[in-house]
Amino acid sequence: MTSLRLSMVLGLLLVLAAGLSLFCGQAPIGPGSIARWLAGDQSLDVLILSEIRLPRLVLGLVVGAGLGGAGAVLQGFLRNPLADPGVIGVSASAGFGAVLSLYFGVSGLFALALPLAGIAGAAAGVILLFMMAGSGASATTLILSGVAVNALAGALTALLMNLAPNPWALSEIAYWLMGSLKDASWNEVLFAAPLILAGLLVLMSTSGALNALSLGETAARSLGVDLSRLRGAVVLGTALAVGGGVAVAGAIGFVGLVVPHILRPLTGHQPGALVVPSMLGGSLLLVVADMAVRL
Fold it and tell me: What is the residue-wise DSSP string for the chain?
């Protein structure tokens, strides 16, 4: 199956899942609610649709796309099918930044304090990664540096949880680290979507180079691939796509690892052709999983 055909199938499934997601929940919402919302009605079911379910759906779409796309690119770049967005420490760093804001109570100062802290943590993790790996690092060095950043951020997060001033703060931190779309709002969508979409554009630009890299680094260089530039694009794109998602939805795992695995045989094992289908597959998986927890 070609990448285009697979993307079309996944797109159709995603549209179906998105439509069902709007009607899934405790409050009864039907097609008539959508019609009244488009007509400008402000009834209770319309408010539930427009202020709770729709932002939750949109956030699930963009976060899932970011995780799926980043997972596909990292697995192609590192030539390791077990790689996921957490392998370079971005997820753990963003989580540490968010937990830090929860620990000191900064998250309650204004609406976007928690996401901003998460993005700051992701940025700090990327800076530390480049400092440890160096500008000309190999894929192995990048993985080892990412594991170190991931371990450091995880240890600091565990320390803050151990030093939590009260059980309520600990409960809030633990709940956030589990990852959820439950409290999604339009403010979070508007904050995260530009970051994730920018990251996805950077990741999509690496598709051709990933196909060349599958032949080996020597062959890729002979085909004109700048490995240092590719490495920077992969890390930057992953930081934006995953950091933006973790900042607003918490540490959601599994999506970036399993989606490329499922779709890889359908794309002829071409890493470049896997990027867009993995974005759509990530969105589909996260939306369906979110529907399942509401049943």
Answer: --HHHHHHHHHHHHHHHHHHHHT-SSS---HHHHHHHHTT---HHHHHIIIIIHHHHHHHHHHHHHHHHHHHHHHHHHT-TT--GGGGTHHHHHHHHHHHHHHTTGGGSSTTHHHHHHHHHHHHHHHHHHHHH-TT--HHHHHHHHHHHHHHHHHHHHHHHHT-SSHHHHHHHHHHHH--STT--HHHHHHHHHHHHHHHHHHHTTHHHHHHHTT-HHHHHHTT--HHHHHHHHHHHHHHHHHHHHHHH----SHHHHHHHHHGGGGTT-TGGGHHHHHHHHHHHHHHHHHHHH-
Express each pLDDT in 82-115 by its tens digit: 888 888 888 899 889 989 988 888 877 777 888 8
What is this structure's pTM? 0.90
Report all structural domains of the chain as residue ranges with CATH numbers, in order of start.
3-294 (1.10.3470.10)
* 295 has pLDDT over 80: no
